[in-house]
Amino acid sequence: MAIGKKPIVVEQIRKTRMAEFLSKGRRLSGRGLLDYRPIKIETGLIEKASGSAKVSIGNTQVIAGVKVEMGTPFPDTPDQGLLIVNTEVLPISSRNAEPGPPSEDAIELARVVDRGIRESKMIDLKKLCLLPGKKVLAVFIDVSVLDIDGNLFDTISYACTAALATAKIRKYDVANEEVKATEEMVPLPIRTTPISVTMARIEDVLIVDPDLEEEALMDARLTLASDHDDNICAGQKGCPGGFTVEQIMQARDTALVKGKENRDLLKREIGLA
Amino acid sequence: MAIGKKPIVVEQIRKTRMAEFLSKGRRLSGRGLLDYRPIKIETGLIEKASGSAKVSIGNTQVIAGVKVEMGTPFPDTPDQGLLIVNTEVLPISSRNAEPGPPSEDAIELARVVDRGIRESKMIDLKKLCLLPGKKVLAVFIDVSVLDIDGNLFDTISYACTAALATAKIRKYDVANEEVKATEEMVPLPIRTTPISVTMARIEDVLIVDPDLEEEALMDARLTLASDHDDNICAGQKGCPGGFTVEQIMQARDTALVKGKENRDLLKREIGLA
Amino acid sequence: MAIGKKPIVVEQIRKTRMAEFLSKGRRLSGRGLLDYRPIKIETGLIEKASGSAKVSIGNTQVIAGVKVEMGTPFPDTPDQGLLIVNTEVLPISSRNAEPGPPSEDAIELARVVDRGIRESKMIDLKKLCLLPGKKVLAVFIDVSVLDIDGNLFDTISYACTAALATAKIRKYDVANEEVKATEEMVPLPIRTTPISVTMARIEDVLIVDPDLEEEALMDARLTLASDHDDNICAGQKGCPGGFTVEQIMQARDTALVKGKENRDLLKREIGLA
Amino acid sequence: MTTLINEQGLRVDGRRFDQLRPFKLEVGVLRNADGSAYIEMGKNKIMAAVYGPKEVHPKHQTLPDRCLLRCRYHMSPFSVDTRKNPAPSRREIEISKILREALEPALILGDYPRTAIDVYLEVLQSDGGSRCAGLTAAALALADAGINMRDLVVACAAGKLGGQIVLDLSDVEDKEGDADLPVAIMPNLNQVTLLQLDGMMTGEEFKTAFEMALQGCKTLYDAQKATLISKYFGKAEPPQQEVQEGPEE
Amino acid sequence: MTTLINEQGLRVDGRRFDQLRPFKLEVGVLRNADGSAYIEMGKNKIMAAVYGPKEVHPKHQTLPDRCLLRCRYHMSPFSVDTRKNPAPSRREIEISKILREALEPALILGDYPRTAIDVYLEVLQSDGGSRCAGLTAAALALADAGINMRDLVVACAAGKLGGQIVLDLSDVEDKEGDADLPVAIMPNLNQVTLLQLDGMMTGEEFKTAFEMALQGCKTLYDAQKATLISKYFGKAEPPQQEVQEGPEE
Amino acid sequence: MTTLINEQGLRVDGRRFDQLRPFKLEVGVLRNADGSAYIEMGKNKIMAAVYGPKEVHPKHQTLPDRCLLRCRYHMSPFSVDTRKNPAPSRREIEISKILREALEPALILGDYPRTAIDVYLEVLQSDGGSRCAGLTAAALALADAGINMRDLVVACAAGKLGGQIVLDLSDVEDKEGDADLPVAIMPNLNQVTLLQLDGMMTGEEFKTAFEMALQGCKTLYDAQKATLISKYFGKAEPPQQEVQEGPEE
User: What top-level class would CATH report for the domain B8-269?
Assistant: First the structure.
């Protein structure tokens, strides 16, 4: 993530010092290489949304809201509802975030989060179909980034997951090709809880949950998401640097271990476990 | 109104002189504090529009055209027609008006004029409904600004009012959920004639109808619109300066007095009185 | 065509030399005044398109693809299909072509080519109507410009003509107000083969098919398209220079002669003659 | 049509005519911003952030003798009942402009020549009066950023509802009501820096509503000051929470 | 299909084959513009304004040895039967380009290095031939602005209608006709600076139509000159009003 | 649902699990570009062009100590089954970004301070794996442009299809399959510069697929080298054409 990178004067000396620390298994902040910062999750604060969650990882803070509307299915998937993820890096979130159309970074963020939800089959989109080929429910997940201190990928991903998992939508009855709204509110058809784990390589060391300073100095980034059966369901390498083959395998293992930890935490926080 | 502001070299000396004049109840142009410049109104010059009016106040000149189309009502007002006001500050109108998407100033202008028409209930939007929830008439009022010499708010507002009040639209018959166009042309369902009065504060003096030079030197602007029953139906304060509480009350009184005068003039000019 | 103009340092000396050559009936490249560069036409290379053609004139290279979709007719031509021509001057095509919305030049190109097809009645648009007022076929012709060395007008025009003339589209059966796709593939309803001829004036001499260097030095440009009955069906003068009345008449004659030659060549290349 | 005022003279949320909705003010809620504030006012939940004084981009907007003030009022897509397109609407552009003009008289912009100050308002949830609530929060964020100010700015609306002039319209009241009159003032300088009117009032009602709005502003101004004092002088209990007495739906 | 030519050989508006529509020219109609003109041609009502020579913005477009000419042809939303979106259409962008290229040969741009001249055409009401009418007005506005010119530019179209070549097509004639050939010339320099063709003609018809358009240009050129003389040398009666004799619908 | 693997263990186009589609590589195919390449990979037909090192526009993007690398992946409207809007989609913007980041480690950007290199990919026809094919062509175009590189970059995907890990998914396989794992490497430097995953795999399958993709990259890397040698050292027969043995639909 380049957002928030520029303000920091990246002194080589700082990087050297960070690398020294990392080679001894420590980070400048005192965290262990595979430790996340504190993760806080608050759901339901936007009453006008079907679901919402404010998530912070360390000082990084985002809010996600879920809205559900009637829509028309895509011609090639007439029996599936729609899922639309949109991320806005608000200008309030950083000295470097400008108002305007979404940057390349914001688009990548939204698309990776979208794939994590979609490919894990978190939501059973077929259950959002009301009249095949004609009427389906469209689930909009909008994320507003409030404060940036590194690792937007995971913060946004957890906020989306928490907002979806706690959302309540109107139940519709379908009879004789007619859709009728009922008074009943039901949860979304949730199948699993995908959890992303973002790792950074700095020199030869892999760490999880990079903060803003670590992002400014990292050589490469890798996000891997997994579901509750330990399947890997989305991946995205970023930054103009590479990984060795061995580092990729190490990252896979870390993603599964930390993914399980964070999934348990998230489910606990939102009252699902 | 910032449009047209920049070209004028605002010398403090000029402002001092203007303030001196104003404190004696006079303006540099010789006008009294509460005098409008000559107002000219010509209607019907755009035969292809349902209604049109070219209005000038002093050297400021705008043209408004009304088009009526079929439309779909908003879900929350299924029994009301649509009203869309759009203002374009054409590049022909001033050395400082650039082509391109509407500026913040143009958007404010259009929205204030829109509110003046809408909130005064000048047009009975319910009478523009043909099939509730399905088909209504949409009234587009487009304003092209031709020449700028101050007080665009009132010039545009009067042009819209005159164009609407003189518009003729096709009559539609509705039977068995079918809409049929007739040959008959009828006026729009007009209830009242809202008239805005724009005032400027320069130092401690309130004037009406500021010209371009006065706008360049004014501290704050206030537009208040009233209807034929002396109700105030729209207001907008502008410019980075304020008014005292007493000045607001004084402005209210002036808006009602000058509003009545200008309403009479406008109705006379367009043949309604 | 200004595209590709700027990189060339237009030395007056070069122009003088070119003019000298031209006054003797020769061109710097050795071509005669009314000679085209080699024209190459390859069709059918985009299997996913209904029709496609890659055309080069000298080093200028473009590719055109035809897509056919269902559409709704315009209200004023309820019994006609739709034709949409779009040209993109890709950034791969020249050091001066920037990505982004189409430039003024690209829009002019697309519109002139569109008129050449439309006004020659090359495609019988009425035969693309399935349900009058409701359903028609929409023919999209998209052109991607790959490499620029002058005379984009003709290169694009020939690519569009070749792609359309060789396109195969699904046959639709219409019965009881229902449209049913069949398995059969049929050609588009082609009536004629319009061919444009682009001429440039440099000083007092008219040449055909200007290359990039000649375009950089030309005073004015004229494109005239003709159909197989020697009707002139589209024209466009370009560049900030003029033609004498006599030059216009001379251009008319050249357009008809060279048009016939190039039409024969094109039909031969695509297997229609 | 809802009955907006019941037989006891109370409004649908149990308020009296001249009563504000419950509100909550906080300052210093964001890490990156130079100044920030958060307001809840009824169901409004609005975040305000200030960046600056800072270098001007694009450069040609630089003012040689003073600071360039910019303001952006924006609604999150989930902030309203029907999802809002995230691109700025004409409404948001207009409100951004009048909020900037309402804040500018309070700022001593001459103290920061050749720089810019950006004021960002993000409406996370919208209720009636979001422009006023946003403005009140923006003034706090500017103070939190340490910008030199002549006075705070504070805003509140009054309106007309079933023939009655009332304070601080909620969403449903705004929709069903007859008029809304948002007002912003600099309380110590006795200057009105924002005034709009949507809807119809007699001249007399205009006066009544205007004065009621001024009263609302004064209550909120006290809360603004208390919030700043609590933040910077460490009072144990931030006093800005005004608990609602009447019944709430 | 309307009958475009009746048994007397007259057109739907009563004109002969080679007759222009009634027209009206004015100069100096706007206060702010450096030069301006207004034309009515049939139902066309077009305002032309010229600003310049002036500083170039953005600066990187500056030409070191001559003036940058820019042109914008734009239609007001109410100018056509069905409301036009105010954003520039592809048609308007193309026309703006060819009008600029038609005007440029007449201007001595080398006299104004490092500056820009903007020519704005606003079509308040559109009829057939609006690009030609606009061009004729633009040349007047340039002259009114005092720009150094080699010649005026004047434009007129001829077309084909029911097998007949006719001058100056109106809207309905353009829609129902077979071909339209707009032409612009610099009359004294014998240069064709605009030529377009939409629709089909034989080579012979092309020649006939082209020559008819040149005749139309000459009539309008006389009117242009008279308008300028009347403005600048104060003739009592501006002679540019050509009253139509035939019956009009 | 198509049967993606038949009883002989072959895929719908007759390929074995670990077999690439037929492909074709060319360099130096455009006249204006500083470097260019063309790839066919299955039905993918992609043109790559490189312009640079060149002056940076807009200037403020200039990097004082190295070259600015830019990348644009774009699909022609006719490249897919249903016409694509020519404006860049969010998908194209994301792919452009990750392709740039996949190429950057291979380039010695410090050799060209204060300049820019533009890499343009135009997908004329799209099949499964167009981002990988485009990347393989982009590396060739960069080499053709003579840019200093540490290594080539080469890309290939593996995926999961009916429970089986397979190499280089075609369009239909991608749509019906369970997962797609595109990978790019710098073969000599043993660096993975692109990795994405769409779809579900166990940790073990991830390893198998990743290693299969690396094998595919190596085959394509040999073809890249052969193509460059053939172009620059004039071997009679360019060896990069790998003819498909199995039956094709």
Answer: alpha beta
